[in-house]
Amino acid sequence: MAPKVAFITGGNGITGSAIIAYLAKHTTKEEWSSIIVTSRSPFKNLVSDPRIKFIALDFTKDSKTLAEEMRETCAPVTHAYFSSYVHKDDFVELNTANRALFENFLGALVDVGQNLQNVTLQTGGKYYNVHLKPVPSPANEDDARLATFDENFYYPQEDCLTERQKGQKWSWNIIRPEAIIGHTSKPNGMNSALTYALYFLVQKELGQEAVMPTNQIYWRGVDDCSDSGLIAELTVWATTNQHAANQAFNAVNGDYFTWRYMWPRIAEYLGAKISPDYQFKKPEPEEGSVQQEFSLAEWAQDKRPVWDLLCEQAGVPEAKASWDAGTWQYQDWVFQRAWNSTISFNKAREFGFTGYRDSYKSIVQAWEDMRKAKQIP
């Protein structure tokens, strides 16, 4: 059997870099002869492997222009993994931009990829609208869509993939993780683990309680998350097992937790303190509303000097720049929810996938990786 050729977009992102690392560490050149990587910004690799080849591409360009840029390098691609994302503050612009991003990518890839065997799209838990309101939990892959086509760009992305595949020799897969925990070489717009670390370490330095900026319902409720390494493992497994072809799979660690007990536990790992019996000052909100004990973005406004001094004293001045990667507003957007939603991992298990992660270990391992990269003290 001829070796496979991977094409990974979003190479600087949490998932893209995890897929690269998985292929580099767990496969041989006889299995995968080449790992082609792209990103809009200059690529910074976390692993060393002679099979890795970089091509600079901008998927905001139309598919015809992209095809010409991709033709020489991407013609041998057998397996393509799309995890690119462009952020827009305006919701309508966000949907329009990301819908076009994937359509441009897929149109160009199908044009040039004569050996194509599989195209995989990563969407996420927002497919189930867990970010907008309480939804039936745990969410399953075949649950009905709860928003309109224009309100959720995952819908047109997924439909574009499945419609384009009809009558073709290649197969598709869709991977839907929840909040992704991992480590990257560059800042990521939704890297919760880094933001947790910045907050805990500063609160420890100040000698103040590391109160979770949320509300009673989110604090007590059940949650889940997705380790980037597990997402990579599931993604490669699904795309190389024929019985898993043309399927969508949720990708979560496989355990569930309550923040009331997880938050104090991870805080303690970095030396911060908060009791699971913390009494919120604001009254309990109605389920489905939004409320925070305080805003993390507002808290962060005057804490930069504390962080800089902390990094200097720890002998890691390189970590000062990590403050700029803090996702304060994103974390406020998550923690303000007065509801909890989870997604089911049963389908992947039923299809034979056996991977899992301990969510506590996932978070602290991400921190240890950040320490090795001198991103946090």
Note the main attributes of this structure:
seven-stranded parallel sheet; globular; two-stranded parallel sheet; 11 strands; 377 residues; alpha/beta
What's the short story on this structure?
With 377 residues, this protein is α/β, with parallel strands linked by helices. It contains 13 helices and eleven strands.
Could you explain the architecture of this structure?
This protein has 377 residues and is an alpha/beta fold. Helix content is 38%, strand content 12%. It contains 13 helices and 11 strands. It has helices at residues 14-26, 63-74, 91-112, 154-165, 192-206, 216-220, 228-239, 259-269, 296-300, 304-313, 328-335, 346-350, 359-372, and strands at residues 4-8, 32-39, 52-56, 79-82, 118-122, 171-177, 180-181, 222-223, 226-227, 247-251, 257-258. A 7-stranded parallel β-sheet has the order 3-2-1-4-5-6-10, with helices on both faces. The model has no long low-confidence stretch (mean pLDDT 95).
How widely separated are the two ends?
47 Å
Strand content: 5-15%
C-alpha Rg (nearest Å): 21 Å
* Mean pLDDT figure: 95
The string of secondary-structure elements, in order, is EHEEHEHEHEEHHEEHEEHHHHHH
Helical content stands at 25-40%
Globally, the shape reads globular
- What are the segments in which pLDDT stays under 50 over at least 5 consecutive residues? none
Q: What does the largest sheet look like?
A: 7 strands, parallel
Strand order of the largest sheet: 3-2-1-4-5-6-10
Kindly name the structural category.
alpha/beta
Count of DSSP helices? 13
How many extended strands? Answer: 11
